[in-house]
User: Fold these one by one.
Assistant:
Number 1:
Amino acid sequence: MSTKLSAGEKAAVLVEALPWLERFQGATVVVKFGGNAMVDEQLIEAFAQDVVYLHLSGLRPVVIHGGGPQITAELNARGVESEFRGGYRVTTTEVMEVVREVLVDQVQKQLVQAMNEHGTYAVGVSGDRDEILLTQRRDVLVDGLATDVGLVGDIVSVNSVPLNDLIEANLIPVLSTVGIDAEGNRYNVNADTAAAAISIALDAQKLVFLTDVAGLYRNWPDTTSLVSTITVSDLEAMLPILESGMLPKMEACARAVRGGVPRATVIDGRVPHCLLLEVFTDEGAGTMVVPDGGNDD
């Protein structure tokens, strides 16, 4: 059953947003979009509306997206079995071709189209363009042993110039996390890691991860133990005990804050318009990571 707000309640919501509009006016906000929200048409539309709302409100959003479920579905459709080692997708040359095709031609295209339903705002770009994500091949640890997982890469550096050019042109970059090395080889790059690196390179004021849980819990599965705000040192002390699905996002939050991003937040992407709730309400949403000593909004 839907609940209608009175005119006064609607006005109160708008007034509550005012100090946050003032604080983040002109600020770069990096948003990583992933999880179940990426395969739900209504949530994609709500996310697109939120990003355009940020843009029209004077913020400078940059969207980084994943695409794991879509990549797995496309590999299955082609009869290619997905293999994971140490939490990373084993990426052969064949798999890498599918990864880039799905990320750029499917996921990115869908997000850009959803945002541009409201005007010409979003532009798709891939990390292998102009060495935006300069990458080197990496191994992963499996049972303590370095293991080859194919064309999986670590980011060496971020070329922020093409992204800044788009931002200065009053556009919203929507980035697919395909990396490239100095020899022109393309790599599958973890989108959480990419979001942290890009937020640092762009001097972002905020990094937001949309995921499949409400945030970080001190004592999972006790849902009353949700952490609202945590310092980066306290978070780093918790990293060894986190579940594998949450670990990359919280590691990325810590890396971003250590790199100078004032706040990094994990929120529940299954909640429509969660991004607006996080940016423009006093209560916010999810778990915010801040530098040691505070800066908790």
Number 2:
Amino acid sequence: MPQPPCILIVDDEPAVRRVIRAMLERNQYHVLEAASGEEALAIYLQGQPRVDLVVSDVRMPGMDGNEFVRRLHELQPLQRVIFVTAYPGDLHDSAHRLAALPKPFSSAQLISKVSAQLVLAATA
């Protein structure tokens, strides 16, 4: 039986991570969590399980989402990322491998965006 896709959530707010995790797990995704860009890079570098998609906040203390994704793409240029943000002006990278989802969002909106990005990742 194939493993479900693994999604790494990166957000400094525990409540936000819990809500996103619940939405994803209800749809049978395997979920990892990180409270910062630094923690997310450490998880990603472990390589187990393989991360199929990253869902990241943009505004975080320390390494913000834009810096995290820049470093992530140095390691894996094709890694798909969904930025979730209440501040769309914070999005600095318009590359094809990034998608944005404005806060607040519904479970249906998140799952639709995740599904689309996973399809794109599979065809890359």
Number 3:
Amino acid sequence: MAMTLTIPKLEMSMVEGTLAEWVAADSSTVSEGQVIYILETDKTARDIEAPMAGTLIHKAAAGETYEVGFEIGEIV
């Protein structure tokens, strides 16, 4: 079962975040809890972990800013 990855709302006032870097490569196998990307907000940079194990598919480019809820990838 696939899981959609979206930009999470990490702070109450957060409306967008920058996908600073994909730590895990496109089409790579990831483990639950493994850091897969770095998200930058106005206040901080956070490591975001895989919510489940599977194959990571990138759907958004690193270095771009996206609205909270925007689909950036999936794990299948």
